Amino acid sequence: MRLYWIASVDKSTLHPTDVLRKLHAKFSTNFDQATVCCNLELERIDVKTRAVAECGSELAKMPGLTTSQTQLSTAVEEVFADLVTSVYLASIGLDRSAQMVLRRSLHGER
Q: pTM for the complete prediction?
């Protein structure tokens, strides 16, 4: 199983909870390194993702919205959540998962 390979453990000797603990430790290390080395990039991403959320909030406040505009304003919140999730997954080293969440978010797949 790939999970054991990612955690760099021998699958025959560890209990599954120990494998998950090792995997969590690996992801924690990745996260710590990403937040240290990419601080300016993370701040730039934060500003842009918050701007997406703010656009949705401002759109929702406009009078006389059509049904599709109202739906779009609520979808923006979901896009914001997916963007944040994608950044988190990338920061712990799950690039493929991050790409999948981001793609889903941008293509409107729900």
A: 0.70
